[in-house]
Design brief:
By secondary structure, the chain is α+β, with helices and mostly antiparallel strands. The chain has one domain: Homing endonucleases (Endonuclease I-creI). It has seven helices and four strands, in the order αααββαββααα. α3 packs across α4 and α5 packs antiparallel against α6. The relative contact order is 0.14.
Length: 183
């Protein structure tokens, strides 16, 4: 049975702990299929096949709820003391866990985490640069940008440029690091 909470209810601690264990297992095994099965078991989600219809639905959902972002984090041993950290994420109340699960099985990667400080918000996070460049950005180009807002489409283009520069090791070039959106 799928977990459903009313407004203001908190996600039970046993669910939070089960989710932490599933994420820990993924770190150890790197087996995304086992992870997806664990997530399905924890939240009572039925398995499903991903076809073109589901991908276009997910594209629309990501247009509204998805986020691509790049943070700059202080890191002593990084070039110029800054680590550039790109990420794709989707946040959703636990009642919408099936949508996060749909994204997880579509991309065949990522982690679903409990958003601390919230009552029952979960976040799917994908932060592997290769996956972002080879799965997430192409998904945006095919299923999201066609229906998306101009502003978000431009944001994804900039995000893609950042990924390209990072994969080319350009983060060591101060000019590129500080002006990546214009380059």
């Amino acid at each position: 049975m799928t977990i459903t909470l009313r407004s203001g209810e908190r996600l039970p601690n046993d669910i939070i702990e089960s989710l932490k264990n599933a994420n820990s297992n993924l770190t150890t095994t790197r087996n995304i299929q086992n992870y997806a099965n664990e997530i399905a078991d924890i939240f009572g989600i039925s398995s499903r096949k991903i076809g073109l219809r589901e991908k276009y639905f997910l594209g629309g959902f990501i247009e509204g709820e998805g986020s691509v972002n790049v943070s700059a984090k202080k890191l002593e041993n990084a070039a110029y003391g800054i680590l550039i950290d790109p990420e794709f994420s989707i946040a959703q109340h636990v009642n919408g866990i099936e949508l996060l699960y749909l994204a997880l099985i579509t991309f065949q990667t990522g982690r679903i985490r409990y958003k601390s400080g919230s009552n029952a918000t979960l976040v799917l996070v994908i932060d592997n640069r290769d996956v972002l460049e080879n799965k997430v950005v192409p998904f945006y180009k095919r299923y999201v940008n066609q229906i998306g807002s101009t502003v978000k489409t431009e944001r994804v283009k900039t995000f893609s440029k950042v990924l390209m520069h990072l994969s080319s090791n350009h983060q060591k070039d101060l000019n590129i690091l500080t002006n990546v959106a214009e380059i």
